[in-house]
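Hello forum,

I keep getting stuck at the same step: I have a sequence, I want structure tokens, and every attempt I make locally crashes halfway through. Rather than fight my setup again tonight, could one of you with a working pipeline run this one for me? It's a single chain of 246 residues.
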Amino acid sequence: MVILFLYLKPCANGGQCVLHNNTSYSCVCAPGWTGPTCSVNKNECVQHRCQNGATCIDEIAGYRETVLCICSCLCGHGYSGALCELEIDFCSGHLCSEHSVCLDQQHNYTCHCMLGYEGKFCELETDECKSAPCANNATCIDLVGGYHCLCAPGFQGRTCSENMNECWSRPCLNGGTCIDLVNDYICICPIGKKQTSFLSGQVSLEATTLTGDGVVLGKLISKFDELSGLPGKNRDVLVSASSYIE
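Reply #2:
Ran it on my machine without issues. Output:
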């Protein structure tokens, strides 16, 4: 009987046959097998230890959870390790420039740019002058993270959008009314008063008595016609000054 058991080799898949009183036997199964004759594959994934949503892959000799066999736990994107217990640091070996900070995310990484830089890896300097922020023909100078406007004469402010008030210093004498122009001013004198300079140096007229017939206004406009290079807007303001001559 013993010889028969040994000849038949009833224990499968590497199981060891153990005789009992020469009349019966039992099988000691190899890892990964079960059943009376070790013919049933044991499903080790029933109580697996894979982490972070990993998929357990059942294998013949047990699911792999050692350093030598790390593939039994099929890790999701962003995780590694024998049991998928390690989170991958995507910022390791990143391509972000020195003008940025690498932000590790679940599936990849992103580059958070510092002020004044742009691009996928923050490798490009932002041109703040591209949007033409400076007004009134000002010159825009691009800076790192900002811009500077060089204003044309007569304008001020961060974007050169404010007209400078040349009447602020009260240049008109003897109770004259100051009218602010672009980079200039004009003095409207009271009836009977004289002014030797009606403009701030660009136009100089002889002393003239301001009367109600608009003589002074006409002379000023005529003088503007003789000059070149003066802002056209000043002439419009000058014409509107006729309301002061009544």
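Helices lie at 2-8, 215-226, 232-240. If your local run keeps crashing, start a new thread with the error log.
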